[in-house]
């Protein structure tokens, strides 16, 4: 066993890439973690126990070949590790940055169960593909011969981009339609640079453009073309719009100036990082500089907002969440990062009303009440309920609502009443074919499963590409038989 490059977890400790000091990193939007050196990546990969039944792969939505590329990394065979990583994921370096590994692969690592600390899977995954880009190992997409069929994809987020890449590689003409001016969806405009620097996303998009995928940006279905026209234009369509409708708070004063939606706030910040002109940022409407900020919510979007506010120079930043730390849906790593950077968490608290300076004036405070956890609700988590007589007040001149997202009314927006939806507003699909109620119109990602993780969107994009390929082959075969007859 002396020459075995693996199984070193007993004598080699868990060691994530060093984070930049909180005071340094909170002054910019650069990624907070430093990069592994090659020797460190090999060392950390060598901690893998090479399980016979790898729970890390089982709990990865993409079922990445994690133990295999960890072994290749430990052996210094980095190009092979990249090729294996790339075989199951269209965006491994993005997943390595933003996946909640503590809830997925690393959270189910056998080494973690043994008390030695999980293998640092996400950090190694990021290192592998970042190295591949630097060394020129990321090859262009080489499409198969033109099949003479066209695919339209509505939505340029991770599900849409994954399907676009895989369908283009199979020889289809692919057109992507998106209402924003840059592709990437939430990867581009929803996730801050300190978690995902934008050149990482843009180089993926550029690779798709170089492969011949046509992007139609600033395009809204129902305004620039109807669904009927797009169905005529393409042999198959994919709806991968994601879910962008913010969940509302019902409380007096919620319409006051300075009470804003999380996505509006994050988009403004990300646009500034691109160097765009953002009037709502310049006039202070979506800028936390010098303000007392309260963010309401406990998911990853709330963590993005509080940490963005710190970087914008907020006077104070508080996160108001109705459950306790153990029951919050966001990544515990993100909570720890936020606390290091100066965010104050107000646990077991919920807003009751928003005070403003005069009617329709600027918000000046949040009136809140303490909560206590009662019996489990339908989700299995203990339901929060108000604790009578525990009201308190927080000064705030910028309040960010980060309570999650619901689907928009796509049948109305797209002008197709026959597009069937579930009672939650997500698109109804046949889960075997991934087709909607419209023949040849498929759907994937959050618009089907509800607000979820980027890695699940990539998985759905991969799956729907297979289903669309089968549909298009059958369609082409039927057309040939008709001509022959």
From TrEMBL:
Its cofactor is [4Fe-4S] cluster. The keyword Ribosomal protein does not apply. It comes from the Bacteria. Residues 151-461 form the FAD/NAD(P)-binding domain. Keywords: 4Fe-4S, Iron, Iron-sulfur, Metal-binding, NADP, Oxidoreductase. Gene3D superfamilies: Alpha-helical ferredoxin, FAD/NAD(P)-binding domain, NAD(P)-binding Rossmann-like Domain. Transmembrane segments: none annotated. Its EC number is 1.4.1.13. GO terms for molecular function: 4 iron, 4 sulfur cluster binding; glutamate synthase (NADPH) activity; metal ion binding. The keyword Cytoplasm does not apply. Residues 26-136 form the Dihydroprymidine dehydrogenase domain. PANTHER family: GLUTAMATE SYNTHASE [NADPH] SMALL CHAIN (PTHR42783), GLUTAMATE SYNTHASE [NADPH] SMALL CHAIN-RELATED (PTHR42783:SF3). This is Glutamate synthase [NADPH] small chain.
